[in-house]
Design goal:
Elements (H helix, E strand, L loop, with lengths): L2 E2 L14 E2 L17 E9 L6 E11 L4 H10 L14 H18 L6 H16 L3 E3 L1 H6 L11 E3 L6 H16 L3 E5 L19 H14 L11 E6 L5 H20 L20 E6 L1 H9 L2 E5 L6 E6 H15 L3 E4 H6 L24 E9 L12 H21 L5 H10 L2 E6 L1 H7 L7 H29 L5 H20 L6 H24 L13 H6 L14 E5 L5 E5 L2 H8 L4 H14 L27 H11 L10 E4 L5 H13 L4 E6 L41 E8 L2 E9 L5 E7 L6 H18 L4 H8 L8 E5 L2 E4 L2 H13 L2 H7 L4 H8 L9 H8 L27 H9 L16 E3 L2 E3 L11
């Protein structure tokens, strides 16, 4: 174990002794790169929607063990230098050398190491851990360290706003600078006077919600890092602010507008071109509730809303009613979340400096105003031995190494504002965390929602934070405690004792968590002893971040504290292409549970086909819960997620980035119960997402692919496809249309029984290339309809296709179109498909949208017509054996990400946005979303 050195060790600038480093993975005389098998690869990233190349760099060098996805993301996001220039990085070695070199050089210069040999060990161990995906720094480190850019290493920032116009304008400016650098920020607006209070001039104050409007517009304009993703920000308001009700309902009111505009035909999806007309969409909102308020909720008593300057009660409200409004708004649009103020500040290590009032956008970093935090996450699965024991010794040593490196980075880091720089250097907040917890639990045979799973998660988190603070106390002896420590010594030591006491309360259930807990207890004892003697180098040490992009970089199956998303995932292959695979943790879990190889193979095959374990051959029902996931047939219950958060929270300096998903059927009372239990279980923050509550992530239910397929009756011989041509005289409809100013004509001809059988399109001048292409396209569509391809198949394929010309149309039913094809097939669907089929495809007429908005069932508008349509062919009838004439299940769309693969098994669309960079459907990562295709995130990285 690392320890401070003897008196013979070299002394740093302060005259104190340096740190003695010990080897973890490396061997003396052998460079860590020499123990890795390297290979050259070509990185070509395309947009699957149109085949265009987003990024290309050939001949890059990576370890053989790295996946194609991790290679693509690191090459495209983290390599520096203009693509195609000699200065462009082309090897992972160059990237790691650039970053680690800055850490090692700074550590030498500032007396962190006892000797040059210790500096070399630090250098080699850090490089080994990074190239072998044992841990990763947060994205700003990879972007900036070792480059000519400012050395910004923090991903999370907290700002402060006072009740002056100068402070409010500074807030706008500071947020813009942070967003430009690719990071996110949070702020509490509770110091701003409410709209019910007077200004010194005699007028009425605008209130914080009005100023949120300006900040939201600014955030929507300044896209993070110059990219296309939205800015990431958090806005917090205290529950006793007089404008709290307006704040609570801010986003739910806007969601009503979004629905109305969507129903009028506007593009209101996340990233849609019309969403910018709606306000307050660039921030997460949270209400900061107190214990006083929560007790008033329980007792159903009144609660006072207080003036900002005088503290006098301006208004009394029923606490339960206000709490219900919070839950109702969250039920409607997922905002606001809740932050538990008294719990947060009860675990605050620097209370004499100031209260914790806000958090970063993902709610895991909670500290002083005008501060920042740099993050790093450990890959837990790397510490699971082949015999399913946890490598406690290496975990301890790697945690020491990473915390040392993170503290060094504050020494050389640059910050977006001087105020943030001063606070961060004075308090040196760090955020070590982990990823792959869900995979670790499954691999060791623990259900995520179980006492055993929570016990293992709690002991690992306790050990990590105990080692981090013990190392912080050792660094304090070498390079001094943080500047604000003397002022906050008693408060800091009190919180350390609270962590240690919580560790003593852990109940271990099996050998793996017992061994971890024994070491965690020893680490906390040493931490308290060294802290009493030396103080601490860091005001904060740990939290659990979403680990979106860096989770992909480390090839993690699960992010942060999350469980497995599903049992199958989408894997890209070398040389192009992709395949569906069952998560590697599944066979490992089956082996741990005692299944023989033949049994495990049969179960894995079943999972590959069905996407779940229900009725898998030979799998015992009592083992089903080990394979429960965040999505799918056996989704973990909302309280299962809350209980897991509660197991880890007492051992974290900060909080946990996680959204608790609840089913669409959940009630407002269910949301209230989740928020109430979060307070009782000691969480610091909690956010929920109810499936299908937001227009930006639409949910549509389709036919399940697990439905029993109709079996054709036995026939003497198979009948192939038969083409049925239209009669020479056929009814037809001619539609003149305009999309984005470009005009065209569509002729749609039907069979006498009204089934569509022919489509001809006229665009461009006769003899032009465009006209010729459209003629050929029309003939292909027409022949396919006559051979029995259902019209809904073409509609599903071509709606939402995006290309120019696009924009406003002259059709009252389809006000906006993403392209000519999008408009044409929407029009055909409206004219020739029944309501039920169109509803599954999300295509409605203006009359039907109006009925939906008024609460009427649109299916009743044309009940007689729809009944008649069901007796008619939607395309040409095909001569087949009678039993085969039943409609076949809708074809499953090709998957391009794990989320889309899960959708194909579930038979319904997941509530996840499309990546604005490459078009791939994203997957949840904490309270954000991450794209498996290119590594982009919807929040801070």
């Amino acid at each position: 174990m690392t320890e401070t050195v003897s008196g013979q060790a070299r002394r740093g600038r302060s005259g104190r002794k340096g740190l003695k480093m010990e080897r973890i993975f490396t061997r003396p005389g052998i460079h860590p790169y020499d123990e890795v098998r390297w290979e050259r690869r070509d990185v070509v990233m395309t947009n699957w929607r149109d085949g265009s190349v987003n990024f290309e760099q050939r001949g890059v060098e990576f370890p053989e063990s790295w996946s194609v996805n991790a290679t693509n993301i690191v090459t495209s996001k983290y390599f520096r230098g203009a693509v195609g220039s000699p200065q462009r990085e082309w090897s992972l070695k160059q990237l790691v050398d650039r970053v680690v070199g800055a850490y090692t050089t700074t550590g030498r210069e500032h007396g962190y190491f006892a000797s040059d040999e210790d500096a070399e060990i630090f250098d080699h161990e850090l490089k080994h851990a990074l190239v072998n995906q044992v841990f990763s720094f947060n994205s700003p480190v990879w972007f900036n360290v070792g480059t000519a850019s400012p050395q910004q290493v923090s991903a999370c920032f907290i700002l402060a706003v006072d009740d002056t116009m100068e402070s409010i304008l500074d807030w706008y400016k500071e947020e813009g600078v942070i967003f430009k650098g690719g990071s996110g920020s949070g702020v509490n607006l509770s110091r701003i006077r409410s709209s019910k209070e007077l200004l010194s001039s005699g007028g009425t104050a605008s209130g914080p919600v009005s100023f949120m409007r300006g900040a939201d517009a600014s955030a929507g304009t300044i896209k993070s890092g110059g990219a296309t993703r939205r800015a990431a920000k958090m806005v917090v308001l205290d529950v006793d602010h007089p404008d709290i009700e307006e704040f609570i309902e801010t986003k739910s009111r806007e969601e009503d507008k979004i629905r109305a505009l969507r129903d009028a035909g506007y593009d209101m999806d996340l990233g849609g071109k019309d969403i910018v007309s709606v306000q307050y969409q660039n921030a997460n909102n949270s209400v900061r509730v107190s214990d006083e308020f929560m007790r008033a909720v329980e007792s159903r008593s009144s609660f006072g809303l207080r003036a900002r300057l005088t503290g006098e009660v301006l208004e009394k409200v029923e606490a339960k009613g206000l709490f219900t409004k919070i839950a109702k708004a969250a039920w409607e649009c997922a905002d606001p979340g809740i932050q538990y103020d008294d719990t947060i500040n009860d675990w605050h290590t620097t209370p004499e400096t100031g209260r914790i009032t806000a958090s970063n956008p993902c709610s895991e970093y909670m500290s002083l105003d005008n501060s920042s935090c740099n993050l790093a996450s450990l890959n837990l699965l790397k510490f699971l031995n082949d015999d399913n024991t946890f490598d406690v010794a290496r975990f301890v040593k790697l945690t020491e190494l990473v915390i040392t490196a993170m503290d060094i980075s504050i020494t050389f880091a640059d910050f977006p504002t001087e105020k943030i720089g001063e606070t961060t250097r004075a308090y040196r907040q760090l955020g070590i965390g982990y990823a792959n917890l869900g995979a670790l639990l499954m691999a060791t045979g623990h259900a995520y929602d179980s006492e055993g799973g929570r016990g293992l998660a709690g002991t690992i988190t306790s050990l990590m934070t105990g080692v981090a603070y013990r190392r912080s106390a050792e660094m304090a002896a070498v390079v001094g405690p943080y500047d604000g420590y003397a002022r906050n010594a008693e408060g800091h030591k009190r919180v350390m004792r609270k962590h240690a006491a919580a560790n003593d309360e852990i109940r271990t259930l099996d050998a793996i968590d017992k061994a971890i807990h024994v070491e965690a207890t020893r680490q906390w004892q040493e931490c308290l002893k060294l802290g009493e003697k030396n103080g601490y180098r860091n005001g904060q040490a740990s939290l659990l971040a979403p680990t979106g992009t860096i989770g992909l970089m480390m090839d993690c199956d699960t992010t942060g504290i999350e469980p497995d998303l599903a049992l199958v995932k989408f894997k890209k292959l070398v040389g192009g292409g992709s395949m569906q695979i069952v998560n590697g943790t599944v066979p490992r879990a089956l082996k741990k549970l005692g299944y023989q190889p033949e049994q495990a193979e049969a179960i894995v095959e079943y999972i590959a086909e069905h996407g779940h374990v229900i009725d898998a051959p030979g799998l015992k029902p009592e083992h089903y819960d080990v394979f429960d996931c965040a999505m799918g047939e056996r989704a973990i219950s909302p309280m299962g997620h809350v209980r897991m958060m509660a197991a880890a929270q007492p051992f974290l300096s900060g909080a946990i980035s996680k959204t608790v998903n609840v089913p669409e059927s959940a009630t407002i009372e269910d949301i209230e119960e989740v928020y109430l239990q979060g307070w009782k279980l000691g969480l610091k923050a909690l956010a929920i997402y109810r499936d299908n509550c937001k227009v930006g992530q639409p949910l549509s239910v389709s036919k399940k692919n697990t439905e029993e397929k109709p079996q054709p009756a036995a026939a003497p011989a198979e009948v192939g496809p038969v083409r049925t041509r239209l009669p020479k005289q056929r009814p037809a409809t001619v539609t003149r249309f305009s999309v984005g100013g470009a005009e065209g004509y569509m002729t749609a001809s039907t069979y006498p029984d009204n089934g569509l059988g022919e489509v001809f399109l006229k665009l461009g001048k006769q003899g032009s290339t465009l006209a010729g292409v459209m003629d050929a396209f029309s003939m292909a569509i027409s022949i396919s309809l006559q051979y029995g391809v259902p019209l809904e198949t073409w509609v599903d394929k071509f709606t939402n296709m995006r290309f120019e010309p696009a924009g406003m149309t002259d059709d009252p039913d389809i006000r906006m179109a993403n392209s000519m094809m999008d408009y044409i097939f929407r029009r055909l669907a409206l004219d020739h498909l029944p309501y039920e089929t169109r509803a599954e495809l999300g295509i409605f007429s203006a009359e039907e949208r109006a009925a939906q908005a008024s609460g009427q069932d649109p299916a009743t508008l044309r009940a007689e017509d729809d009944v008649e349509r069901e007796t008619l062919a939607q395309s040409v009838p095909v001569e087949r054996p009678k039993a085969a004439e039943k409609p076949a299940p809708a074809p499953i769309a090709e998957a391009h990400s794990s989320t889309e693969l899960i959708e194909s098994h579930q038979g319904r669309t997941a509530d996840a946005p499309l990546c604005l960079t490459c078009g791939t459907k994203m997957r949840p990562a904490g309270s954000c979303y991450v794209c498996e295709g290119c590594g982009s995130t919807s929040g801070c990285s």
